[in-house]
Amino acid sequence: MQLTVLGCRGGMPANGQPSSGYLVDSGRNKFLLDCGPGIATALSDEFDASVLDAVIISHLHVDHCYDLLPLGKTLLSPLALAHYPGAETAPAGPPAELPMVPLYVPAGSRSMLDTWASLLTIETMPLLDRVFDGAFDVREYEAGDTFTVGDSTFEMVGLKHAKTNCGTRVTTPSGSLAYTGDTGVCDGLVRLADGMDLLLAEASLERTDLGAHGHLCAADAARAAARGNVGELMLTHFPSNDDVWLKARLAEAVELFPRRVHLATPGARITVGA
């Protein structure tokens, strides 16, 4: 399994870094974990979005889902151009339906997605507005749900955050990883990490979040990784790209987790389960 960091910025993009988005390649299938601002652009630098086998959204805060709209319109573009043969790049032949990419979102999300798509329309190419019923096959999940796409199994683990958030356990024939989305310290965090080859954990703060919002500091992530006996830890979802700040978070994690710790950077690739 290979993990590629497309974006690792907590909140809005900054310093040329996209928000949250991670590409998982099982060797047979490709999946996108979260799709924050800037991720559609970063993904296009890797390959055509049509090769995605699924997109999994941890929660509906803007820094984790905002680029679903441009990504969906990108997927619909070949079909839209085929229906408008006056366009210079229109393909030859009659239009053909495109396979929809499965999009897994928290339960109750569908109505919001439909409203969102209806607000920003392209009147001369209405097909491009069918993001959530033409580009994506929207599938709502709840905490505890499991599903299989290709050769990979996904388990959604409920975590603690201001907006309903599930961490994702991904198991493939070549490796396994757990991704937190956003969460505070909770029992589910250790369940999420348990036995995984890699824990991809947000580390937004300098100290433990005692409030209601729900975020982790590097030490929180390291303790969860140690308790879950994971193979490696990658910290992500940073509010800054300041080298001194990042190295301080790395040092805090290394002190508490005895195995390898990575700092996420856009474009970074790591082989999981090797």
In which range does the helix fraction lie? 25-40%
Distance between the terminal alpha carbons, to the nearest Å?
A: 8 Å
Poorly predicted runs are 90-95
- Structural class, judged by helices and strands? alpha/beta
Molecular structure report:
It is a single chain. The chain is of the alpha/beta class and 274 residues long. It is built from 8 helices and 14 strands. The chain has helices at residues 39-44, 62-65, 68-83, 110-119, 131-135, 187-193, 218-227, 243-256, and strands at residues 2-7, 21-25, 30-33, 54-56, 101-106, 136-141, 146-149, 152-158, 166-172, 175-179, 198-202, 232-236, 261-263, 269-271. The strands form 2 sheets. The protein has a 7-stranded mixed beta sheet with strand order 6-5-4-3-2-1-14. A 7-stranded mixed beta sheet has the order 7-8-9-10-11-12-13. α7 packs parallel to α8. It is globular and about 60 Å long. The N and C termini lie close together (8 Å). The model is unreliable at 90-95 (pLDDT under 50).
Give a topology summary:
Layout: E1 2-7, E2 21-25, E3 30-33, H1 39-44, E4 54-56, H2 62-65, H3 68-83, E5 101-106, H4 110-119, H5 131-135, E6 136-141, E7 146-149, E8 152-158, E9 166-172, E10 175-179, H6 187-193, E11 198-202, H7 218-227, E12 232-236, H8 243-256, E13 261-263, E14 269-271
Helix pairs in contact: 7-8
Could you provide a short overview of the structure?
With 274 residues, the protein is α/β, with parallel strands linked by helices. It is built from eight helices and 14 strands. The model is unreliable at 90-95 (pLDDT under 50).
